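User: Can you predict the 3D structure for this chain?
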Amino acid sequence: MVATAGDHSALESQIRQLGKALDDSRFQIQQTENIIRSKTPTGPELDTSYKGYMKLLGECSSSIDSVKRLEHKLKEEEESLPGFVNLHSTETQTAGVIDRWELLQAQALSKELRMKQNLQKWQQFNSDLNSIWAWLGDTEEELEQLQRLELSTDIQTIELQIKKLKELQKAVDHRKAIILSINLCSPEFTQADSKESRDLQDRLSQMNGRWDRVCSLLEEWRGLLQDALMQCQGFHEMSHGLLLMLENIDRRKNEIVPIDSNLDAEILQDHHKQLMQIKHELLESQLRVASLQDMSCQLLVNAEGTDCLEAKEKVHVIGNRLKLLLKEVSRHIKELEKLLDVSSSQQDLSSWSSADELDTSGSVSPTSGRSTPNRQKTPRGKCSLSQPGPSVSSPHSRSTKGGSDSSLSEPGPGRSGRGFLFRVLRAALPLQLLLLLLIGLACLVPMSEEDYSCALSNNFARSFHPMLRYTNGPPPL
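Assistant: Here is the predicted structure, written as C-alpha cells:
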C-alpha cells in the first residue's frame, strides 16, 4: 500500500505539472495571437519588437514540447497503474493546445517574414542615414577650411583647387540620390507615436539642414575660385596665345590649300610635310585646350559678369576652332596622299613605257638619252603609253618621248623580256581571233550540192523533235 500510495502521489504531481504547462502554453499562444493580429512595426522600435517576438515564439515552442513530454509520461504511468486516475480530460486539453499551436504556426511564420523584411528595410535606412550623417560632418568641416585658405592666382594652384572642387561636386552628386531616397522612405519609419520616432524626425530635419549648408558652401567656394581665375594672368595669356596660334595655323593652311593636282610630286611632298607638321602642332595643343575647357566648365558655366562671359566665349571659340582645323587638315592630308599615290603610279607606268621603247630600238643613242632639256611635260593624270606611229628608231620620235627622270639607262633583261612578250601578245591576239572566226564560218559551208537537199532542212527548226531512221531499210508492207 505504501508503494501504491507513493506512485499515486507521483502521478498527481505530474498531472499538476502538466496543468501548469498547459496554462503557460495558453498564455504564450494568446500573446502570439495578439502580436500576429497587431500592425507590423516599421520604425526604430522594430529591433526590440522583432527580438521580443522571436523570443516569444521560442518560449511557445518550448512550452508545447513540455506539454507533449509530460503527456507521454502520464500515459506510461496510466498503463502501469490502471484504474488510479482518469486522463481523459487532460488528454482533451492537451490535444486542444497542441492543435491551436499547429494552426498558429503558419500565421506566426508569415508574421516573422514580414517583420524580417521590415527589419532589413529599417537597417538599410538607418545605415544610409548614418553614412550620410558622417559624410556631411566631414565635408562641411573641409569646405569651411578651404574657404579660410588664401586663394592663389597661380594657374597651377587653381587647377589643383579645381580638381578638388570636381571631387567634392562628384561626391555631392553621388549622395543626392541617397538623400532623396531617405526623405522619401522616412514617413514609413516615423509613423509610430514614440520617442524613437520623434528622435528620428529631428535627426532627418538636421540632416536636410546640413545638406543645404554643404551645397551652399560648395557654391561659395566655386565663386571664390571663379574670382581667382579672372585675376589669373596665366589663364588669360594661355587663352590669348592659343587664339594667336590657331590663327597662325589657319593662315599657313590657307597658303597650301586648295591643292593643285597638276603640281610636281616634289611640291606635293613638301605640302604634305607642312600639313603633317600643322597636325602635330594641333595635337600638341589639345592638352592646353582641354585644360582651359575644364576650367571653364567648372567655374564659368553659370557666370554672370562681363569678364566671365567673355572668357567663357573665348574658350568656346578656341575649342571649336581647334576641332575644325584638325578635321580640315586631316582631310587635306588624305587628299594629298591620294594624289601622291597616283603620281607615283604614273611615274612607274612612264618608266615601263620608256623601257618598252628602248627595247624595240635595240640601243640608246647618246642624243636621245640626253635630250631631257627638249622633252615635253606629260600632263598629270594621263598615261603616256607608246602609240603606233613613226618608226621607233627615229631620233626625233625618241627625243620627244623621253622619260621624266634625268637620263635613261639600258633596261634589265627581265623587264625587256616581259615588255617584248606583252607586245607580241597584243599584236597577235586580234589576228588569231580573226582566224578562228573564219574557220567557224568555213565549217558552215556545205561540202557538196547534195547537202542542199530537203533531207537536211530540219537540222535546226525541229532539232528538239525525235527523228527515227531505219538502219536496214524500211519494213515490208
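The domain at 228-347 is CATH 1.20.58.60 (Methane Monooxygenase Hydroxylase; Chain G, domain 1). Confidence is low (pLDDT under 50) at residues 358-413.
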